[in-house]
């Protein structure tokens, strides 16, 4: 079986901007801030995309970071910057903002 090709990005962040849910909690502005700050920090291999509903409305706004599969609920620009620095740049996790995982 052939190997998978290398990924285009080191991290891919999906931000729910569904109306009536995460969008009402300010996710569009937070996504825009994450994009601009990632660029300012020189994180060229980080991609931020907006999406429709991701099914975790009660935690909104919701950001999902892949390939790790870590989901966050940042509430403001400072939280976004902490995710950028701690997770996307340094490889750590911002535990206080992480959503609970599914039960196995």
Quick structural gist:
The protein has 104 residues and is an alpha+beta fold.
> What is the C-alpha radius of gyration, as a whole number of Å?
14 Å
Find the CATH topology. Glutaredoxin
Number of strands: 4
- What is the strand arrangement across the widest sheet? 2-1-3-4
How many individual domains? 1
Q: What share of residues are in beta strands?
A: 15-25%
Low-confidence stretches: none
Structural class: alpha+beta
What's the structural blueprint in terms of helices and strands?
Layout: E1 11-16, H1 27-40, E2 46-51, E3 63-66, E4 70-72, H2 77-89
Parallel strand pairs: 1-2
Antiparallel strand pairs: 1-3, 3-4
Helix pairs in contact: 1-2
InterPro entries: Thioredoxin-like_sf (IPR036249)
Keywords: Iron, Iron-sulfur, Metal-binding
GO molecular function: iron-sulfur cluster binding; metal ion binding
